[in-house]
Amino acid sequence: MTEKPEIWTIRKVLDWTRGYLAEKGVENARLETEWLLSAALGLDRVGLYVNFDKPLNPEELAACRGLVARRAKREPLQYILGTQEFCGLDFVVTPSVLIPRHDTEVIVEEALRRAPHAAAVLDIGVGSGCIAVALAKQLPHAQVVGVEQSPGAIALAQRNAERHGARVTLFEGSLFEPLGDQRFDLIVSNPPYIPTADLEALQPEVREYEPRAALDGGSDGLDFYRLIVPAAPEYLNPGGWLMVELGIGQAETVLGMFSRTGFCDCFTAQDPNGIDRVVGGRIG
Ligand SMILES: C[S@@+](CC[C@H](N)C(=O)[O-])C[C@H]1O[C@@H](n2cnc3c(N)ncnc32)[C@H](O)[C@@H]1O
Question: Which top EC class is named for this enzyme in its record?
Fold first, then answer.
């Protein structure tokens, strides 16, 4: 007598994967399982539920296994699925770029609120292009420029700008170096700001997969503010704004840098968790 082959229905794969990913330390294992299996099977999440009792064929099972194995090694879901939503737009993401965070939407909101008529905008450290593209979409008459040192990130930012029909001019280089005598009404930046010693304690998704050059802000995390804040006035038109994203506990020190550099109307803005996430100021 031959044994009956085991039948893996969608329900059974979902249940097994949810437990497996939770065991591997994945938060939100239930939701992530649904996204992974949806991607592997080419279904939306409702499609999974209405096909609960459908047995999977060997190819479908192999596709599920491949994606689940990657997530079990703590590769970020966004790199596996290839996209992340930001400001209502879908961005292609690869390991060349930091995955856009929802907290970063605060700098976009502040920029649009305080500088709605900016005609020339600069984003330093453009990464996936999320801030630059979101601003270009909301300020269609503005010239938006992005600077980035990573060639892989520049290529992806270009792809994301084209995907959304956003006019963003990209320069490869460090900070203000590629800009010559251009001047801006608004400069935004989400620079690397994690203190070097804290990198090892980050979640494996961040520590092992996201680009270190997007995270490491030097010994106290403030290296990039020390470079950007004093240099910015030379690249701002009169009345122009500088706004930077920052990490927990950095606002007071960065505000001090703004005041000492001569910025006025300085402000801090909080993320949805009440953490000071953005500092900004205007040049007189
Ligand atoms: C924290 S990530 C932000 C990416 C994107 N703007 C976002 O908000 O998701 C910082 C970015 O700055 C880039 N970067 C690091 N050093 C740089 C430098 N000296 N000049 C320009 N870009 C730099 C990194 O490659 C990375 O893409």
Answer: transferase
